[in-house]
Amino acid sequence: MSKEILDNVKEYYGTVLQKSCDLKSDVCCTAKTRVMTKSAKEALALVHEDVDSRYYGCGLIVPECLEGMKILDLGSGAGKDSYVLSRLVGEQGHVTGIDMTDGQLDVARKYQQYHAGKFGFSKPNTDFVKGFIENLGAAGLADNQFDLIVSNCVVNLSPDKRAVLAEACRVLKEGEEFFFGDMYADRNQSEEIRQNKMLWCEGFGGSLWWEDLYKIAAEVGFSRPRLFAAAKINVTNAELEAIIGDSQFASVTYRLFKLPHTNEPVTEVVYNGGITDFEDSFKLDHEWTFNKGEAQVVSGEVATILKTSRFASKFTLTATDRQPAYNEVSRARIGLGALDF
Ligand SMILES: C[S@@+](CC[C@H](N)C(=O)[O-])C[C@H]1O[C@@H](n2cnc3c(N)ncnc32)[C@H](O)[C@@H]1O
């Protein structure tokens, strides 16, 4: 693992940046391209100003069906996503944030009691631990410990993405998912971009070519990445723009599921409703949206997700001889190309 990169990133997020607007791109504003749920909006309104103003993510990361979940937030920073999620999991749930930068952890820890009070909880349901996301074991995180893992604009900063994904897969319970927002590129980065300290710290230098994510995910034991949302990122600094040239970047939200080794067969599924904020319709990814009461034939992998994840109690699954409406895998290869690039 490159200590120099980690030290640069620590310095950048610990001392160089003080507020969201200090970033040199509009990455934090890509959130506006996504619909925020009523519950998330209510939670966000209660987040302390000091936490909110130190937000460096790319879109608020709020998956569905959170009640009672034990969540891990990789690179939790000042804690904005962690606190929104801590309200949504409720008093019986828990959010652990992990970050390597003391300045960020200090802000997050300072407001634990404050947020518990605002949310009407008898005690905080959060903790913020110091550590590297490439080595969660060193921070004391055990195998199959979490119901859900999230992250917001952090994986791209790591010099060792394979280690991050492998560790996330290890600490996640089977059937569940790593739901994360991150920066991706339409190509491998040139050495000039990778070696530029500010471009790395802003997330551009370490952005994976999105095709590489598919390879790494498979190698470490995750299912094929499911694209949830994407928005183009604009660099707002002329000097950095000149180095980047015509490379394109996007803020992307992916779901990676840790599934059992054998898939279900092709199956007919019906969404029965019951997911908070998504009573009428639930979007799994850009390929699959399930309207309440409507039967759809899905691939074996989607059937496995719906059978083994926290969404299981919201769906009825029935064996069928029919085939899915389209070949999922060939459509997925279009990937980001179908969206903003
Ligand atoms: C772009 S900020 C995002 C913070 C937060 N998720 C948010 O949305 O505001 C990146 C954060 O990840 C942390 N970070 C970056 N690389 C890390 C690593 N390898 N291990 C642990 N934390 C890391 C930084 O310290 C910083 O707080």
Automatic annotation (TrEMBL):
Q: Tell me the Gene3D superfamilies matching this sequence.
A: 3.40.5.100, Vaccinia Virus protein VP39 (3.40.50.150)
| Ranges for domain Methyltransferase | 67-220
Domain of life assignment: Eukaryota
What InterPro entries does the database record attribute to this sequence? Arsenite_MeTrfase-like, Methyltranfer_dom, SAM-dependent_MTases_sf
**Which GO molecular function annotations are given, in alphabetical order?**
arsenite methyltransferase activity
Q: Which UniProt keywords apply?
A: S-adenosyl-L-methionine, Transferase
So what does this thing catalyse?
arsenic triglutathione + [thioredoxin]-dithiol + S-adenosyl-L-methionine + 2 H2O = methylarsonous acid + [thioredoxin]-disulfide + 3 glutathione + S-adenosyl-L-homocysteine + H(+); arsenic triglutathione + 2 [thioredoxin]-dithiol + 2 S-adenosyl-L-methionine + H2O = dimethylarsinous acid + 2 [thioredoxin]-disulfide + 3 glutathione + 2 S-adenosyl-L-homocysteine + 2 H(+); arsenic triglutathione + 3 [thioredoxin]-dithiol + 3 S-adenosyl-L-methionine = trimethylarsine + 3 [thioredoxin]-disulfide + 3 glutathione + 3 S-adenosyl-L-homocysteine + 3 H(+)
EC numbers for this chain: 2.1.1.137
The record ties this protein, via CDD domains, to: AdoMet_MTases
Give any Gene Ontology cellular component.
cytosol
Q: Does the keyword Transferase apply?
A: yes
Give the GO terms filed under biological process for this record: arsonoacetate metabolic process; toxin metabolic process
**Protein family:** Belongs to the methyltransferase superfamily. Arsenite methyltransferase family.
Name of protein = Arsenite methyltransferase
**Source organism of the structure:** Ridgeia piscesae (Tubeworm)
Upper classification of the source organism reads: Eukaryota, Metazoa, Spiralia, Lophotrochozoa, Annelida
